Amino acid sequence: MTMYAMVDSPLGELLLVGEEDPGAAGTALVSLSVPGQKGAAVVQDGWVYAPSAFAPVAAQLREYFEGRRTRFDLVYAEGRGTDFQRRVWAALDAVPYGRTVSYGQIAERVGASGAGVRAVGTAIGRNPLLVVRPCHRVIGADGALRGYAGGLERKERLLGLEGALAAR
């Protein structure tokens, strides 16, 4: 069963989408999107509005936006995306709070060189878990903020929250 909830945040109202995960005795997060996001999930007929199922996610997001959480401890739905996308997304998960990396550095980490940087950028752009899977921490090799499905203003806001703008 697909469930969803809406959570207020400094980025706007976040749409959380999840599925029951019997192995984790809870909800596995499938998507976290912001208003106006390119490729964002859209509530479908048959989805169940279940804010209580997302209480742990909402609590961790609140702590993050208050500056009290630097890592998320959430259950994500497995098997989403291609093998390559999952490798890129795992590399994103390894980027520490308050740090940034370039698209080229992510490409190196996943063994994609040269033209692979473009494929890495595409995979990052398809990240279904904005904020909690930190694609906002990926910047251009020249230090410029580039591409963010939620908009560059939100990317800048997240990096500012993490203190990563001063660290560049």
Break the fold down into its secondary structure elements and pairings.
Layout lengths: L1 E6 L6 E8 L4 E8 L14 E2 L5 H11 L17 H11 L7 E2 H7 L6 H10 L12 E2 L12 H10 L2 H4 L1
Parallel strand pairs: 1-4, 5-6
Antiparallel strand pairs: 1-2, 2-3
Helix pairs in contact: 3-4
Describe the structure.
InterPro entries: MethylDNA_cys_MeTrfase_DNA-bd (IPR014048), MethylDNA_cys_MeTrfase_DNAb (IPR036217), MethylG_MeTrfase_N (IPR008332), MGMT (IPR023546), MGMT_N_sf (IPR036631), WH-like_DNA-bd_sf (IPR036388). The chain is an alpha/beta fold and 168 residues long. The chain folds into two domains: 64 residues, Double Stranded RNA Binding Domain (2-Layer Sandwich), CATH 3.30.160; 85 residues, Orthogonal Bundle (Arc Repressor Mutant, subunit A), CATH 1.10.10. The chain is built from six helices and six strands. A four-stranded mixed beta sheet has the order 3-2-1-4, with no helix packed on it. Strands 5-6 form a two-stranded parallel ribbon.
Summary?
By secondary structure, the protein is of the alpha/beta class. The chain folds into two domains: 2-65, Double Stranded RNA Binding Domain (2-Layer Sandwich), CATH 3.30.160; 83-167, Orthogonal Bundle (Arc Repressor Mutant, subunit A).
Main attributes of the structure:
MethylDNA_cys_MeTrfase_DNAb; globular; Arc Repressor Mutant, subunit A; 168 residues; DNA repair; MethylDNA_cys_MeTrfase_DNA-bd; single chain; DNA damage; MethylG_MeTrfase_N; four-stranded mixed β-sheet; 6 strands; Double Stranded RNA Binding Domain; two-stranded parallel sheet; 2 domains; 32% helix; alpha/beta
